[in-house]
Design a protein that fits this description.
- By secondary structure, this protein is of the alpha/beta class.
- It contains 10 helices and 13 strands.
- The chain has 2 domains: 2-169, Thiolase/Chalcone synthase (Peroxisomal Thiolase, Chain A, domain 1, 3-Layer(aba) Sandwich), CATH 3.40.47.10; 181-323, 3-Layer(aba) Sandwich (Peroxisomal Thiolase, Chain A, domain 1).
- Helix 4 links the parallel strand 4 and strand 5.
- The longest helix is centred in the C-terminal third of the chain and has 22 residues, at 216-237.
- It starts with a strand and ends with a strand.
- The chain binds acetyl coenzyme *A.
């Protein structure tokens, strides 16, 4: 069995927040943020707008693009580090709104790598024959865990959601579909680096939600190394050269981190999907948001080879190579 992408969707909160607006409340400037990160703008969820709301909207769009009724789903996997509540899983809230009680639904927590981890989980359910139609969502409201007085972190992140629908298809199935789908998934973690990127709260430690804390320079150094290594691993596992990649859909943390990966792969910049300037870092939502944009505007076409990668708190990192 192969996990074939049959639709995608996304949702961004209406309110956008520019660098210039941010510079009115925190000691920063558009020039500094653009030069260090490539970010100009980000979207911020409205009061009362929850991660599950963003996720639901992206899911509805993905199901419509797939031409699939929610009742055909047999699994929902949602990646988030900013769930509505400590429990239940935000995936179950989305499930209830979609009206598909009974099927398994759970969250995956791998911060910015969450969508890559969730895709790997879904792919393994499909390969094991335990699911046929899977909704995979990445959704975040990082604005709720930012210390808006800390200029070293609050300028970097935004809110949003993206979703895909995967369908199990036999590798020797109908013409045109046999070669499509996820080729391989590659996941890693190294928990020794907790202190470089974490949230200083939680139900078992402080009893409060806490704020994101980061040692930016060290995170940058690890991100560059880990991403270079995992994209190489994905290509090697499939006996492919970087020339075979039609589209790199990277985690949109920072333009300079993406540039390092692009340089390592020697990819022409036209093959890279970029949303970081407009969305900022939306954590688990960043890869599906970028994916959806390039599919919707016709850049990514059926049969194209796409390489998705991400790195996040934990540290966690990973890559998925697929044929769209
Ligand atoms: N505006 C203006 N000045 C700032 C700002 C800001 N928003 N933030 C920091 N500065 C100042 C610092 O205080 C420092 O001033 P000083 O020299 O007087 O002490 C100066 O700018 C340089 O700060 P550095 O931290 O050395 O800046 P650096 O070049 O490392 O850039 C950045 C910081 C952008 C955070 C970078 O380290 C980075 O991108 N790291 C990766 C972080 C990341 O992407 N994390 C996301 C989660 S993990 C992931 O998704 C991969």
């Amino acid at each position: 069995m192969k996990s074939v992408f049959i639709g995608c969707g996304a949702y961004l909160p209406q309110r956008s927040l520019s660098n210039a607006e941010l510079a009115k409340t925190v000691d920063t400037s558009d020039e500094w943020i653009v030069a260090r990160t490539g970010i100009s703008n980000r979207h911020i969820a409205a009061d009362g707008e929850l991660t599950s709301d963003l996720a639901y909207n992206a899911a509805v769009e993905a199901l419509a693009a797939a031409g699939m009724a929610a009742t055909e789903l047999d699994l929902i996997v949602l990646a988030t580090a900013t769930p509505d509540e400590t429990f239940p899983a935000t995936a179950t809230t989305v499930q209830a709104r979609l009206g598909v009680a009974g099927i398994p639904a759970f969250d995956v927590q791998a911060v910015c790598s969450g969508f890559i981890y969730a895709l790997a989980v879904a792919d393994n359910f499909i390969k094991a024959g335990q699911a046929r139609n899977v909704l995979v969502i990445g959704a975040e409201t990082f604005s709720r865990i930012l210390d808006w007085e800390d200029r070293t972190t609050c300028v970097l992140f935004g809110d949003g959601a993206g979703a895909v629908v995967l369908r199990a298809e036999a590798t020797n199935g109908d013409a045109g579909t046999a070669q499509r789908g996820i080729m391989s998934t590659h996941l890693h973690a190294d928990g020794r680096h907790h202190d470089m990127l974490y949230v200083d709260g939680g139900p078992s430690s402080t009893g409060t939600a806490g704020f994101l804390r980061m040692r930016g320079k060290e995170v940058f150094r690890h991100a560059v190394g880990n991403l270079a290594s995992v994209v190489g691993e994905a290509l090697e596992a499939n006996n492919l050269d970087a020339d075979a990649i039609d589209w790199l859909v990277p985690h949109q943390a920072n333009q300079r981190i993406i540039d390092h990966t692009v340089k390592k792969l020697k990819l022409p910049s036209e093959k890279v999907v970029l949303t970081v300037a407009r969305h900022g870092n939306t954590s688990a939502a960043s890869v599906p948001l970028a994916l959806n944009e390039a599919v919707s505007d016709g850049r990514i076409k059926q049969g194209d080879v796409i390489l998705m990668e991400a790195m996040g708190g934990g540290f966690t990192w990973g890559a998925v190579l697929a044929r769209w």
